[in-house]
Fold each of these.
Amino acid sequence: MADLASPAIAPQSSQGRHPPGPKGLPVIGHLLHIRRDPLGFFTDCHQQYGDVVRLRFGSWPALLLSGPRDLETVLVKNHQRFKKNTFFWRHVTAIFGRGLLTSEGDFWHRQRRLAAPAFAGQRLESYGDTMVRHTSRVMESWESDAARDFHGADAWDSGKDALQRRSGRRCVDHG
């Protein structure tokens, strides 16, 4: 999410129009939709409006960026132009902690250098077999005609089971 107060990727076209996006509710904007089903809402926004979607969190304007080039611009090439010290990022940091997603400056550079080897060429390719193996194991446990909620409990249960098998640790559901 890019803050429109920051120099955003495409806040306006040459005609002065803003990127497309769903109409939010008065006062709260899109907060209710995000609270109900964040992954589903963001997925629907991307599918309906494209790689750059205009949103509002209360009265605060924001952009949902989905395109790889836009994300690279914000997270790598021009990261210094996008500040994460706003109201929104304070809450994200409270949830996810101080890491690569939420940090900036020297600390961000250090975190990025530490994470980079895990995402390099052959290492990244090697994850595919593991993901396929875990996905197959989860799918084999499903009843063939059962409905699946991929944005809710089923996704959490499947991910939690895979993480527990991989890490050998128990995941606690706080919901």
Amino acid sequence: MSQSRFSYFACVGFALGFASMTALAWACASHTLSDSKAKRSKLDVSFYKQPTAMTSRAPASAGHVPWGGNNPQTRNPEARLAELFQELQVKYGDDVVLSVPVRFQMSSFHPYGDGQSNASVDFGPHWSYALPPFYAVEFKDSLGRVNHEFVFHPRLGVHNRQLHRIGKSIYLVKPEGWIDSFMVSFETGQIPVDEFLDGIRLGLRKFTQERSAPDPEQIGQGGAAGTAFEKLLKHTWSSGYNSDPYVVDNIHGFFPSTEGRRTAVGGGWTWVVEAGMKAPFKHLYTCFAGRDLAEESRYGAATGAGWHHVGDPAETILNTIESASIPAALGRFYGNTGVNLAPAYGLNGSATFRNLQPKEVFVTRKNEFHWYAIPTYEPLCTEIWVHHCEPTPSNSWGMDCSN
């Protein structure tokens, strides 16, 4: 049985990152992806050399350092949501789920020539406060029971509400006396990797040279010392992958184009093999630059991948070669839920945040959105699979389109 609670922002007792960062936190300088190094096809591994006190599989965590800089007034909406999620982790634990009604905006900017296009979120044209008008939290208490908390901004003056549960994870929340409603979803798109693989027979993920996914290059299998990033840079690649990484300065972090505002900072490195004779599907190893506090402060944005709309049948991020969790979010238009409602403040969808844990996967289907942040100072690496068709129970998670 789940338990639900209603509260104001005040009852949550958030600092919400409004306290100034200490000099010690600022002194923990991150490695930055400088312009000169970003343009190089192959980077000097020593540039990202870890302090000897760290383990080889655990990039240095940035801890509780506010996302998007130390000034809450200059953070963009994406960074404000990242900071709200971070504060909730402090209160409820690493496995908390946050769902926020937002307005998604799309663009026609496809920076990598695939189906994914840059997007942005905000709190609607009629809401001028830094934090959203409403959000919901799912968390477990000390006995492992699932609880929910529904939080209205105090400016709304809401004291009572009607709550309607739709299916397993969607809630329609209507303040008393209102015509409009808020909708939230606790569906994260995240499942254990073993559960994901149970639905895909081995033959559909076999590569050449008797390799199989996940991790066909066995980066996370032990052996050579160093971080996943260092291993990838030194790796002798199987046929089909590019041997030198494709390097970018920004990952879906502009809206609506490179002439627009920054929604995220930080670059990345990618090794990819296309679907065909060498691989059963498009497969990528992508590493994301560690947190850059100076760039976050400059643009008021979080380090990571900005919100983007998935136009391919599906894209899955696998946290299979690292030991750190990754803050990630799934976005859906309300129209995709099959529920009719009058959305409050023109908010047309919901953004649902949860930490993608090691040995978990994050599946985003066509016409959904996703976002993720990088919480470490060192580069953090993932696998990415691109599906052939939209995942269903009968088509091996979109890897067998014959059905």
Amino acid sequence: MPGHPQANEIYLAHPINDQQYIPASNYLQFIYEEKARYFVKMLMNLAVTKIEIKYCRGVKTFGGIAANIADINDASERSNAGVKTELSKDNEFQFFGEYLPKHESELPQDNIWYEYENTWKSLVEQRLIGKAKNLMFTYDYSMKTSLGTDLSFIVEKCLAQIGINTEYGQHTKWEMKLSF
């Protein structure tokens, strides 16, 4: 990111370039875009003739409040109240390119991500050693995290327990079709 650090902005270190810091607000987007640029450049080094990439990302959050109230003398009688909310947001990106390579396939030399990406290494091996002509990759990943809190307190003769739970799920899917 060009320029000086901005006030009231949190920055995260680039995972490979320790001289670069990226605003936390768009860190993942920056990394994805940078990796996409290096990936396409690597494919061009491999004499790709056609690239189709589809990227989808969905974000879902669920929040709930549940309350259990019981008389201390008779804890077997409990009543539940619950609320659940859901918010969903999806992002999609598509890329299509056709190329007329003017060189033979070669190993990428200046790709900072190549060393860390085993899928890329496999693709390069399939192209350079196996002389692959058409390849299709699908990467489908879901991550779910939750943040929960239980609050317990005594009000006269009643025990009230309130649970607040927030779950956040992120789903990412890449589809790539390549021709050489």
Amino acid sequence: MRALISTYDKTGLDVFALGLAELGWELVASGGTAAYLEELGLTVERNLRPLLELSPRGVEHPAPVVLHERAQFPIPALSFLLLGTLVAADWPLPPRAVTALAMGLGLVHGCLNGVAMQQAGTGVLGLLGIMAALFVLVTLVAACVVALQRPWTRIVVRVAGSWIAAMGLLMLGWSLRGHYGRW
């Protein structure tokens, strides 16, 4: 595995880089960071070209989700935008539509998180823990929203939905900015 290290403040970098090297990581750096690591006696690759060619966005702004070597799609941003808009608009969806939406988003995010967990080496217990925590969280939030009786509480939930949609738009803008260059 390779680790790209690039930092202005070198405080604590010696311990961090030595730890990575002991674990078998190949270190990649440029400029002053590479010189600093070489002074510590570490082997550092200075050629960043292969890393820059992995993504059209470069290493400065990593892709939120990489579905293909060059195709990037901001799935979390679109999920926030969709769900936030639905809550803010207070659209009454039929139960089948809610079920289909939950299953679709669950499958997409589950696949993406499963791939990330597999790469990180997290086992089945980690997956079960995440599933249990998410189930409890969603159940508690849903119960709190359903229990709201006063008319103003519905407005509070809609405002929260608008904030969630705004976060989705912001995330989408950041991912597009990184993909299409600085505007």
